[in-house]
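STRUCTURE:
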């Protein structure tokens, strides 16, 4: 054998050994050494972020998705308790084991609601972020791999300063002019007209005839403004009683509504079923339902067509993956609820990439710049033709901007 030939064969053998070693050698074991909790205040919203620290310098981020309504401090406190009791010293790769431990041993997780599951969700997402970064892959590679490269999104939040049908019409036209092919609004909500653009939902479960007329006129005006090719969704936020939403929902039918969201209370699947039998619009629900256990009855009753779990408060990425699989077996689609910081949007897009029965992703693209500046590259800034290309950066694909979140540091948990 000539020397050159020998070297070639020897080199190939060495390379094969290296590949084989890389394929069989487990990554060195990481340990969780601390958790930072940020209670952010930005643009009238209050995102709750968890940053999990490890002994090898890798960090992961997750969000407890209660950025609106009451309870952000409670969610931060829940993250603190979970971090202290369950996370320090743990292997961040063992995510299923972590989830089971929370579920079995927090006591309140069984039958629990938004606070306990927002806390679990934030930490769960952070662990996926760490695992992705440690292995050098985006999270979708750990959840089955991509079934799509881009995710279609719909615009929400554009209507929060609208008062009359003309306002809705004008603003909807502007959204469509920016390339969106789907949009949603709240026909019964009223604008608070505060600097941060909040809306108020119906109280005491009833509206007068004038409010009903205004709602129908607003839907009519928006449909006329956007034309027949754009998807229009309506969110009722569980505002009315069953009889009242059936009456109103029937009046919406002629405007080609893609889905009617939360027509009744989240915890009344029988009422949801009743609405679905009387209103000829697909029903969507799920942003206030926690874990696969609470979705089970909606599936069994076939009370909805589209499920909207929020990755940041229903139990995390894997929990929504499981809910999506259950929904698929019942011929239903998934539209992850998303109304928090860009961390939640990044997590949603990673999951959207790898669930086959995805319908569309909710997005708030019109927040103030400070909201998007919480991370190094907010996915909301990448919308093209009503779609976002899925990030292939390792982990969830976003990094917290330290100078932006530091003023909101609420607690640091260390071993
Ligand atoms: Mg909603």
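SEQUENCE:
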């Amino acid at each position: 054998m000539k020397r050159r030939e020998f070297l070639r064969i020897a080199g190939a053998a060495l390379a094969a050994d290296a590949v084989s070693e890389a394929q069989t050698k487990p990554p060195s074991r990481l340990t969780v050494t601390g958790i930072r909790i940020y209670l952010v205040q930005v643009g009238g919203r209050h995102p709750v972020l968890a940053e999990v620290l490890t002994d090898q310098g890798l960090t992961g981020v997750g969000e407890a998705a209660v950025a609106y309504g009451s309870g952000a401090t409670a969610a931060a406190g829940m993250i603190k308790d979970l971090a202290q009791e369950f996370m320090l010293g743990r292997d961040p790769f063992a995510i299923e084991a972590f989830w089971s431990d929370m579920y079995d041993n927090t006591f309140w997780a069984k039958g629990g609601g938004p606070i306990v599951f927002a806390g679990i969700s934030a930490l769960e997402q952070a662990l996926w972020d760490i695992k992705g970064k440690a292995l050098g892959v985006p999270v979708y590679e750990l959840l089955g791999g991509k079934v799509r490269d881009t995710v279609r999104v719909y615009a929400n939040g554009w209507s929060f300063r609208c008062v009359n049908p003309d306002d809705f019409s004008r603003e909807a036209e502007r959204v469509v002019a920016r390339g969106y092919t789907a949009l949603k609004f709240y026909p019964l909500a009223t604008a608070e007209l505060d600097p941060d653009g909040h809306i108020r939902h119906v109280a005491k479960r009833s509206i007068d005839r004038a409010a009903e007329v205004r709602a129908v006129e607003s839907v009519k005006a928006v449909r006329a403004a956007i034309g027949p090719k754009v998807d229009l969704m309506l969110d009722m936020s569980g505002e009315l009683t069953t009889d009242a939403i059936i009456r109103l929902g029937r009046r919406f039918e002629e405007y080609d509504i893609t889905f009617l969201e939360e027509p009744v209370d989240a915890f009344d699947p029988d009422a949801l079923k009743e609405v679905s039998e009387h209103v000829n619009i697909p029903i969507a629900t799920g942003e206030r339902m926690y874990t696969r256990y609470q979705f089970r009855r909606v599936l069994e009753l076939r009370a909805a067509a589209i499920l909207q779990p929020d990755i940041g408060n229903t139990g995390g990425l894997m929990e929504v993956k499981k809910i999506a699989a259950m929904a698929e077996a019942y011929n239903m689609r998934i539209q992850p609820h998303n109304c928090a910081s860009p961390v939640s949007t990044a997590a949603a897009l990673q999951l959207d990439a790898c669930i086959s029965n995805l319908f569309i992703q909710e997005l708030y693209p019109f927040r103030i710049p400070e909201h998007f500046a919480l991370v190094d590259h907010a996915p909301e800034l990448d919308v093209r033709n009503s779609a976002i290309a899925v990030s292939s950066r390792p982990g969830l694909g976003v990094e917290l901007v330290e100078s932006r979140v530091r003023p909101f540091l609420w607690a640091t948990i260390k071993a």
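REMARK: The radius of gyration is 23 Å.
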